[in-house]
Design a protein that fits this description.
By secondary structure, this protein is mainly α. The protein is built from six helices and two strands.
């Protein structure tokens, strides 16, 4: 039911930009997530926590439609904005995965429970790795000087994020069949 909407929500969390414009806007992702919550067939305190993050994530995603707007604000404002998006997003996704894990355990589906736990943890790792340059920048608009091979690190992070979001989409497809 709601898992199909969440599948599409995770698709729209891919960060693909052309000339600063988000081609898969996070605003759409959070609308899909909201639709999914409305169709969810089970209740969970973890889902309630994720649902509470949704309005803030939706509002914070609006300025992200066009990335260069952040250059208009002083470093600390941009830093707080990016940190809030990162932390709320991590809590949101992890709580969804934890709720799926709990529901799968209640249904006796240990494989799905383990998959949900692993994928939630992978998302947290991805968020933590993404946040490291943000902490070094402290909201400044100048680029962080990473040692030597920064381009391969950026490519590796991009590929890792594609894999993690793809795994989350796969989890939603499995949940649609196994949880309903």
């Amino acid at each position: 039911m709601g898992f199909r909407s969440w599948f599409w929500g995770f698709l729209f969390l891919f960060d693909f930009r052309l000339n600063g414009f988000d081609m898969l806007p996070d605003v759409a992702a959070y609308l899909f997530f909201a639709a999914g919550f409305g169709k969810m067939s089970f209740a969970s305190p973890r889902l309630d926590t994720a649902r509470k993050c949704l309005p803030a994530l939706f509002l914070l995603s609006i300025p992200d439609l066009y990335a260069p707007w952040l250059q208009l604000f002083p470093g600390p404002v941009a830093f707080v904005y990016q940190l809030a998006v990162l932390l709320l997003g991590a809590v949101f996704v992890y709580q969804i995965c934890a709720a799926i894990k709990e529901r799968a355990e209640q249904n006796g589906d240990g494989e799905l429970a383990g998959m949900a736990q692993t994928r939630g943890t992978l998302y947290l790792v991805m968020a933590a790795i993404t946040g490291v340059p943000l902490l070094f920048m402290g909201g400044s608009h100048t680029s962080v000087q990473l040692p030597g091979a920064s381009f391969p690190l950026v490519i590796a992070l991009f590929v890792f994020s594609l894999i993690v979001l793809g795994l989350l989409m796969d989890l939603m497809k499995k949940c649609e069949v196994r949880i309903g």
